[in-house]
C-alpha cells in the first residue's frame, strides 16, 4: 500500500528546531498543485529557498519542509503540477506518499488560520504539530477522518461498486465515514445497507491505512452478506454495484490502496 515504503524510513516526529538546508526536500503548493522539477523530482534546498518554512517530517534522515508562501524565486526547471495527476505518472510511490502527507498538513494549516472560538489568528506550537490561539488558548490539531472499507462477500463473489459523483475508472468496495456515536463495525453495517440495501454479518477486521489525500484513517473489514443478495443501489452514491466472481475481478492498476489489496486477497484466496 502507499505507506509501505520500505526500505525507506518515514519519521513524522515534529521538531520545530530543525531548519532547512541544501539537502532538504521542499514542498511548495499552489492550491492543489505541487512544485516539481523537470524530471518529476522533488525540489531541494539547492533548487528553491522556502518562504516561511514549516517542518513536516523526515525521509531517510532528510528533513522535509513546507513553503507556506510562494518563494520569491522559483527554479527555472520547475513547474506546478496537479497532485491528482501524480498517481498515474512516473512518480515514485514513496514520493507520492510524502506528497499526499505534505498536502494533508498544508490543507490543515490553510484551513486553520483563525480561532473558531474567538476569531484571533492562530500561531504554530513550538512543541507539537498544532496551532494555538494566543488569546483564548485553544489548541487545534491536524484532523483525521475515520472511515471504513467493506469487502462484502457471497460464496465466491465479491460486491464491487463504482462511485456516481467521482470519475474513477476502476472498481472499488463499499466505503464511508464513521459517524458520531458509531463503531467502525456499525459503520460497515450502515454504509452497506445505505448504498446497496444489503445486510451483513461476520464482520472481521483486516488492516488499516492512512489515506492522506482525504485526511482519512481507513479500517478495512471483510464481511458476509446476511439474507437476501438482491442489490438495491443508492444511485446518488453509486453508478454501479454488482456481484463479481473471483475470475472476473479486475484489480486497480497500482498497489497503493487498501481497497485494491482487499480485492486481491479475495481474488487469490
Question: Key features?
Answer:
269 residues, alpha+beta, Nucleoside Triphosphate Pyrophosphohydrolase, 3 domains, 6-stranded mixed sheet, 4-stranded mixed sheet, 3 helices, 16% helix, 34% strand
Short description:
This protein has helices at about 95-110, 185-195, 260-269, and strands spanning about 10, 25, 30, 35, 50-60, 60-70, 80, 125, 130, 140, 145-155, 155-165, 175, 200-210, 215-225, 240-245. The mean pLDDT is about 95.
Give the helices and strands, then pairings.
Elements: E1 10-11, E2 25-27, E3 29-30, E4 33-37, E5 51-59, E6 62-69, E7 78-82, H1 93-111, E8 123-124, E9 131-132, E10 139-140, E11 145-154, E12 157-163, E13 174-177, H2 184-196, E14 200-211, E15 216-225, E16 238-245, H3 258-268
Parallel strand pairs: 2-6, 11-15
Antiparallel strand pairs: 1-5, 3-4, 4-7, 5-6, 8-9, 9-10, 11-12, 11-13, 12-16, 14-15
